[in-house]
Amino acid sequence: MRAKAGRVATVAGTAVLAGGVLTDSLAGPGVIAAVATAGLGLAANIKILRAPTSVKATAVAVYTAPHAGCVAVLVGDRLAPAGPVSVLVQAGIVVLWTGATWWMRPGLLARELVDETAAQENAEDAEDAEAAIDVVVPAQATYASPQARWWAEQVATDDGIAPQTVLLEFQQVSERCMAAVIGSVQRGMPVPDISTARLSALMDVSEELVEIAPVPGRGAGVRLLIVGQRPQTAGAEAKTTGTDEERWAEIAATAMPGVELVEVNTYELRKELT
Fold first, then answer.
1. How much is the mean pLDDT over the chain?
2. CA distances (Å), 211 to each of 115, 149, 228, 267, in order?
3. Between the CA of residue 273 and those of 214, 227, 237, 239, what are the distances in Å?
4. DSSP code of 137?
5. 3 vs 47, 49, 51, 82, 218, CA distance in Å?
6. Per the confidence metrics, is the pTM higher than 0.70?
């Protein structure tokens, strides 16, 4: 239906333009008719009026191009000088307008332009939605204990006291002592040097009560952290191998089950954990 209406409008426009070549009296009514036809045509083409913003102006320009051309030709006919040459030129312009409008079919071209742009934007929106669905939400880190979480968030950060480390084991050995095993995140790499002063400041514990030592029988990829005063056993004043083994047994039994004492390092604490 629209195609037939467009063909009829083209023929009517050609008739008006041909009349305008022969007489100036059709210029005014012809201009009014062209403008009115363009307005009515746009009002009837809801697809063009509701076109995406990116293509709406272009579609309107394409649709109204033949009407604007008709107005320009009518005005030109009115201003053109009299004479056979001028009439031939005007007639040629009318033929050119008719052929271009008939062949290009601006109304259909404008609607196809809107359809293609809308389809493309819908496809892009679908791809964006699919991509949003496919976004992998990083899994929240899980920790074996609150102490492991605290170590990861407060100590093992990139700019923290012990980056690239993880708290493997933790045990409250006694009211005044806790022990923990620290490991390197990267296999085959040693635990970096950890500042006992910074740990002391972070935990608000006397620096003398913070000790980082090798784990007997293990490599540099793990370290033993002891905070507080080690448990004392009966006869602890006598520094014998048996007493050290008893102390270690109390720590290892809870902090590192199955670890055997193969080497002893002792020290004196001047103050207790406060």
1. 75
2. 74, 21, 9, 10
3. 22, 8, 19, 22
4. P
5. 15, 18, 20, 37, 87
6. no
DSSP H helices, 45-83, are 46-49, 53-79
Cα distance between residue 234 and residue 224, in whole Å: 24
For residues 244 and 263, what is the distance between their CA atoms, to the nearest angstrom? 10
Is the pLDDT at 203 greater than 80, yes or no? Answer: yes
Q: What is the dihedral of CA 106, 109, 114, 118, to 10 degrees?
A: 180
Question: How far is C-alpha 173 from the chain's CA centre?
Answer: 47
Alpha-carbon span 228 to 179, nearest angstrom: 9
**Can you count the helices (H) and strands (E) in the chain?**
9, 4
How many Cα atoms occupy the beta-carbon half-sphere of 83 within 13 Å? 6
Q: How confident is the model at residue 267 (pLDDT cuts 50, 70, 90)?
A: very low
In degrees and rounded to multiples of 5, residue 246 shows phi and psi of: -65, -40
CA–CA distances in Å: residue 271 to residues 134, 195, 252: 57, 20, 23
Which tens digits make up the pLDDT trace of 112-129?
Answer: 888 888 888 888 777 776
* Residue 1 clears pLDDT 80, i.e. is over it: no
Q: The tokens of 41 are what? A: 């045509």
End-to-end CA distance of the chain: 94
d(CA 110, CA 39) in angstroms, rounded, equals 15
User: Residue 152 and residue 154: Cα distance in Å, rounded?
Assistant: 6
Does the pLDDT value for residue 238 go beyond 50? no
Position 52 confidence tier, pLDDT thresholds 50, 70, 90: confident
Burial of 55 from C-beta contacts in 10 A (0-12 / 13-18 / 19+): buried
Residue 56, token pair as written in the block: 């709406």
Residue 168 phi, psi (nearest 5): -85, -45
